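for the writeup, i need someone to sanity check this before i put it in the appendix. the sequnce is what the collaborator sent (i think, or maybe the updated version? ugh). structure was predicted straight from it, no edits. if anything looks off just tell me and ill rerun, i have time this weekend
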Amino acid sequence: MSVTLSELLRWGKERLSSANIEDYGISAEMLLRAVLDLSRSQLLLSRDREISSEIKSEYEKLISRRINREPLQYIVGWVDFYNVILKSDSRALIPRPETEILVDTVLRVIRGLSAPSILDIGTGSGNIAVALARNAPGSHITGVDINREALQLAAFNSEHNSLAAQIKLVEGDILDNDFVKSLGLFDLVVSNPPYVAADEGHKLQPEITMFEPASALFCGQDPLKFFKTIIGCISYILKAGGYLAFEAGFGQPEQIVEFMKQDFKNIEIVEDLAGLERVVVGTYARSNKG
């Protein structure tokens, strides 16, 4: 029995809705677009198109994966982030809209700099590095991550977006002081580090805890560990008068400001679109260590 595109889409929405998938409408549509390789406008214009049994079977498999709580972005394999298209898979966290606020903040503070050098700590998929390189054409970005597989994904994304010449990727541990000292000085340091305490995992969606890399999410018992570490070694990696920008979790920005007060001035907290304090940025006011 043949089925039209609109009928198949309706079936997908019903299946996901009955499985309590919150974004069932978006997921059903995105998965069908992925199977058919159609834009949203093409999908809307093809509602009466008859679908082959092969396509129907492939779509059913993707719907089953989403019912099992696999993230939509991992199933589709790509994500749109700050006007760049990025490959997305389980090697790194899924780039999220909240992090676009961090990118936007960084672009604002470096606006007057010529060819700024930027260190992206915990680069993951390379989303911050790629977005900054695309929107600040003269910038030079070093992306650091402890996860070699994540760096491979970041390399693909920088090459896919024709930005590899601006982005250098380095494997290393920000908790290793010798490694930090080897990186050199930058005009800006940016980081969206792990900031979820190990015992807070039960508060997260199953899509996150079951599929996204734990090492990029959790930071032991102290959710502020990486913020403290970066601030503590900042004189080795940030030029005097340079900028430090963090993305942080709920309730954390005010605490981070307290850690920054001794060495930074003009500290600002930026809210996300939901009105939650999300980004902390400040200007380094001390001299560098030799």
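The radius of gyration is 21 Å. The mean pLDDT is 92.
thx in advance!!
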